[in-house]
Structures are given as C-alpha cells and as structure tokens.
Design brief:
The structure holds two protein chains of two kinds.
Chain A: H1 2-38, H2 42-46, H3 60-67, H4 69-101, H5 110-122, H6 127-136, H7 144-147, H8 154-166, H9 169-177, H10 182-193, H11 195-211, H12 214-219, H13 228-244, H14 246-254, H15 266-298
Helix pairs in contact in A: 1-15, 3-15, 4-8, 4-11, 8-11, 8-15, 9-10, 11-15, 13-15
Chain B: H1 2-21, H2 25-51, H3 69-72, H4 79-86, H5 88-120, H6 125-136, H7 143-154, H8 159-166, H9 181-206, H10 210-218, H11 223-247, H12 255-261, H13 267-270, H14 273-283, H15 287-316
Helix pairs in contact in B: 4-15, 5-9, 5-11, 6-9, 7-12, 9-11, 11-15, 14-15
Classes of the chains: A mainly alpha, B mainly alpha.
Chain lengths: ~300, ~325
C-alpha cells in the first residue's frame, strides 16, 4: 500500500514536471521563431518556410543592420538614454527618499509633501495636456524629454524609502553627534549600505528606459532622436497593417506572381528584434538575482 | 466672564504646544534645512511635469486650435464631452476598455496562482529555477518586440496557422477578426506575465511554515488536500491585495500592448480609451476632444486608484508609504 501511494505520487510528479516544462518551452518558443527568421535566407522567409530553425543559414541581415545608419543611430539613442536616465533617476530618488524616510526627525510639511507627491504622480491630466505642456516647455524633439519627465518613479522611490527606513537609526544618530551633516549621512552611510536596493532600482530603471517607446513616438518627431524601440514600433505596426491586406498578396502568390520588390524585409525586422532583445538578455541574470528583493521591498513591506 | 475664561486658557494651550510638541520653525530650519534642500529637486520636478501640465485640462472645455492658443480659443463648456458621449464610439470604447482589463486581471491571476502552486510542488531547486528563468523572461521584453514576434507568428501564413492548416484546420485570423482580437490580447498578456506575477506568490509560499504541511501529512492529507487547504489559503491575502491594486489600472487596460496590435479591422472590439485619445486626439488633431476624453479617464482613473488603495488597506492591511 505504501509503495502504491509512492507510485501514485511519482506519476503526479511526472505529470507536474511535464506541464511545467511545456509552459517553459511555450515561454521561449516565440523567441526561437524570431531568431530562426533572422538567420534564414531572404527567400526562405518570404515564402514562409521558416518555423523554429533557420533555413538557408546566413548572417547577412545582421551585417546589413551594422551598416544601416538609421538602425545604428536608434541603438545609440537608446544606449544614451539608459546611460543618462539611470544615474539621474538614482540621484533624484536617493535625495528624495532620505528626508521622507527619516520619520523620527520632526520635519513640518513632510506629510503634506508626501500627499502632494502621490496625488501628482497618480492623477494625470491626460496625454493632450501633457503634450501641450512639454511643447510650451520646449521639450519636444529634445533628448531631455526621454529622460527627465520619467526621472522620479514612485514605485522605485518607495523601494528606497522603505529600505532607508529599515537601516539602524543609531548609525545616523551617532554620525550626526560627531558633526556629520544630513548629506554626509546620506552619501557616506546610507548609500553604501543600500547597494542591493540601489542595484535593484538601477536595473529596473535601465530596463524601463530600454523598453520605453511611446514617449519617443509622441514627443519626438525627428527620426535621428528616435530610441530603438520607437523606431521598431513604426516598423512592426507598418508590417501589421501590410499583413491586413495580405489576402490580395496571397491571391497573387497563388497565381505564381511573387513580387519581391514589394515584400517588406521580414528577416531584417527579425534581426532588429533580436538585437533589441540582446541587452535585456545580458542583464537578465542580474535582474533575476534582484527582482525578488525588489518585490519584497517594494510591494510587501515586512 | 465666559469670554475672559476663553482668552485666559487659549494662550496657555498654545504656549504649551509650542514649548513641548513643536520646536519653533526657525529651530527646525536651522537643524534640518538640508532635508528641505534635498526635497527641492523633486518639488521642482513635480511642478514642471505633473502640476504645470494641468493647465492643459482647460483645452477640454474649449474649441482649441494651436494657432489661437488657450486664451484665443472660444469656451464651449461641456460640448467636447457631449460630442464623445453622443458618438456611437463612446459605448464600445468604454466597454472594450473595461472588458479587456477585467479579463486580463482574472485570467492573469488564475494563471499565475496555478503556476505558482504547481511549481511549489517541485522540490528540485535546479528545475524550479530553470522554470522560473524561462517563464519570467517575456515580462522584461517590451510589447513592441513581443508584438513584432507575435504578429508574424499569428498571421495567416505564420507558424501557428501553418500548424493549424497542417492538422487539417482552417486558418484563424487572430489579429484581423473583431471577434477574436480581444482574446488575442488577453491570452498574449497572460502568456507574457504569468511567470512574473507568480514570483510574488512563490515568495509568499516559501514563507508558509513547513510544520503545517507536516501536521497535515500526519493527519493523512494528500498532496491536493495540502495545496487546497494550506498553500492556497496561505497566499489568499496576496491574491486579494494584488487584485485590489490592479483595479486602479482598469482604464489603462494595457495600453502599450493594445496600441501595438490594433489595426482598423478591429476598432469595434479593440479600441480602448487611450488608443482613441492618441489616434483621434493627437494624430487626428482633435485636441479638445482628446483632452475631454483624457480628463474623463483621468478623473475616473484617479478615483479608481483611491478606491483600490482604500480596498487594499481595508482587506489586506496594505499602505504604500
């Protein structure tokens, strides 16, 4: 009887493991299709032969993209955006979080400031007023519009506020008795002690900047200032619209008319998507180490 | 007599509160001016990017044209709101927004909880970590990239439909059929986010005391009974909390995803408030109409966020600060 139960348990285990493995494969398969397309020959892609494995393997698409000025430029804008945006976000969050986390200090106006900040961040006048305001501030078509308006993220700020709150009070108290100022306490004691939390914030902010595209298409009309993801948005949606008229294309295909000149370069777009994903894959191991910290610090105050 | 009693006690109360509870502002300022200095950049930033734009709300009540400016455009009262709500689009847009959002929350939570409970049954750490690595990855890839991949996969001659036709089925128009489009959004969002949403449940599951499981095992509870009566109740507070908080974003309905997939064939079931504001208001140049719909969305959305935080506080004892 005992062995019978064990056997049943084993079977359940096998079943559960298979379901989980299937889900994991489903999560990754779409990425396999795009990698396969990016490495296949032009003809194999346009005639829909490629599924999960490259057909007519070559790296021409990648070579071509390296020489495509628009693509290289968009990639550089995205990199610049991360390099400028992350330090700005870290600095702004750290200096804002410190006063808001020192609950033991009597500081008139702190609660009011917190409420104003929450209302400001949660109530939005909508896209049109924001567009008009940025326009009147001269921010349209300016690199700053990509990094400055999003500099203070409420959820990342809360992670740091709560982390600062958890640091032992004696540290700052004794330092201040020795004559240290609040700036000293913040930058010489709090910041070095908060490395894991700051790393979490830096990584999430970097991923957020890399993945943003809506601000690019709304506030930037000069193509040389487009981040990579905004550039790709235009490519992807244009292709989607083309797909919607593909019924006609299919008919011409059945009639034996293959118009390569009009076919949009699917393989090239696949290579762009792969290259835009690579930076995320590179930081992903670090992200994984920190995202539980981020979650438990931010959303579940213990 | 009454008045003299009041005038005698009032200064006393005030003096005591000044002496014992509140140091004079000058003293506070002398000691903590640096704290105020540290808040100054955030204050300037808030004013510039969150409060200054609020003047633009006025556009919702004007017949605005960029050439005439705010002061030169005629005031039209609630006409822009009336125009939106009288149009046949209004009902379907609001219905689409709420339906897509609620279905995403429901399916997303069920999938994440089921996945977390299943993964929690696996005791081999390496396997667990591999499964989590694979399933959380899509969360960190933007909808533009995921959209670019899925649009190709789901097109009429994409991988999925080639598989269906190879099995003898009819090709399905996932993105071009108004009937199917919302479900394509809902299922793909669930696919992208279930692994990430499960992270928090898995963290909570590890916090459940092993003694509970042992005691249940001694009492003869099988695997299913332990999952049903220990694991699930153990994470119920977090399910409640996350469901409450997601209520605040209902009017967003996952704007970026919808904008990537939306096309003219499926406006009737796929157009949501934000895509309408962007397309008609900004791209179409109907700034006043867009601003009116945006204000409607902003006000209701803000109330929903307050409601969601209030509910989270009441039901799950959660406060954001």
């Amino acid at each position: 009887m005992v062995t019978g139960r064990r056997l049943g348990d084993r079977l359940v285990d096998v079943l559960l493991w298979s379901i989980l493995a299937l889900l994991a494969v489903l999560s990754l398969l779409p990425f396999l299709t795009v990698i396969a397309r990016s490495l296949s020959s032009f003809v194999a892609v346009t005639t829909n032969q490629v599924s999960f494995w490259p057909i007519g393997f070559n790296v021409d698409n990648y070579v071509y993209l390296m020489r495509d000025n628009w693509f290289v430029n968009a990639f550089a804008v995205s990199v610049a955006r991360v390099l400028a945006g992350v330090p700005l976000t870290l600095l702004l969050i750290v200096i804002t979080a410190y006063p808001l986390s020192q609950d033991r200090l009597h500081m008139p106006g702190r609660t009011v400031f917190k409420i104003i900040m929450l209302v400001g961040l949660l109530f939005s006048g909508g896209l049109i007023p924001i567009y008009l305001a940025y326009k009147s501030l001269g921010l349209l078509n300016h690199f700053a519009v990509l990094v400055v308006p999003g500099a203070l993220n409420i959820f990342l700020a809360i992670i740091i506020i709560n982390f600062f709150r958890g640091l032992p009070q004696e540290l700052s108290e004794s330092a201040m008795l020795d004559g240290a100022s609040h700036f000293d306490v913040l930058f010489r004691i709090f910041v070095p002690l908060s490395r894991p939390a700051l790393a979490t914030v830096a990584l999430f902010s970097a991923v957020g900047h890399w993945n943003s595209w809506f601000d690019g298409i709304v506030f930037v009309s000069r193509q040389e200032l487009w981040p990579l993801q905004s550039y790709l948005y235009v490519q992807v949606t244009t292709r989607n619209l083309n797909r919607m008229v593909e019924v006609e294309r299919n008919q011409s295909r059945q009639a034996g008319v293959l118009d390569f000149a009009q076919a949009t370069p699917e393989a090239l777009q696949a290579a762009m998507i792969v290259l835009a994903t690579v930076p995320i894959i590179l930081v992903y191991p670090f992200l994984q180490r920190y995202f539980v910290t981020g979650l438990t610090l931010g959303s579940l105050k213990g | 007599m009454g008045s003299s009693a009041v005038s005698r006690t009032e200064p006393m109360i005030r003096r005591r509160s000044v002496a014992e509870r509140r140091p004079a502002f000058g003293v506070v300022w002398g000691r903590h001016w640096m704290l105020y200095l540290m808040l100054a950049p955030a204050a300037v930033w808030l004013v510039l990017f969150h409060f200054y734009p609020l003047w633009g709300i006025a556009v919702a009540f004007l017949d605005y044209s960029p050439f005439r400016g705010v002061s030169g455009s005629p005031y039209v009262g609630l006409d822009n709101f009336r125009r939106f709500f009288d149009s046949p689009d209004a009902f379907s847009i609001i219905r689409n927004t709420i339906f897509i959002a609620l279905a995403k929350i429901a399916m997303g939570q069920v999938a994440a909880v089921a996945f977390a409970l299943t993964l929690n049954e696996v005791r081999v750490m390496l396997f667990r970590r591999m499964m989590q690595t694979a399933t959380t990855l899509p969360h960190f890839i933007s909808w533009v990239l995921i959209g670019g991949i899925l649009i190709e996969m789901l097109s009429s001659d994409g991988v999925v439909n080639r598989g269906i036709t190879a099995l003898g089925g009819q090709a399905i128009r996932f993105l071009g059929s108004a009937q199917l489009f919302p479900w394509t959004l809902i299922v793909s969002e669930t696919w992208k986010e279930f692994g990430w949403n499960a992270v928090i449940y898995l963290a909570a599951l590890t916090a459940i005391s092993p003694e509970l499981y042992e005691a249940a095992g001694v009492d003869g509870a099988g695997r299913w009974a332990r999952t049903r009566h220990i694991s699930l109740p153990g994470i119920t507070p977090i399910i409640v909390l996350l469901s409450c908080l997601s209520l605040g974003g209902i009017l967003n309905a996952g704007f970026e995803q919808v904008l990537v997939f939306l096309n003219p064939m499926v406006y009737s079931t796929g157009d949501i408030l934000d895509t309408y504001i962007y397309r008609v208001g900004l791209l179409g140049g109907e700034l006043s109409l867009g601003a009116a719909v945006g204000l409607f969305k902003g006000v209701i959305g803000f109330l929903l966020i307050l409601l969601s935080y209030w509910l989270a506080d009441k039901l799950a004892n959660y406060r954001i600060f």
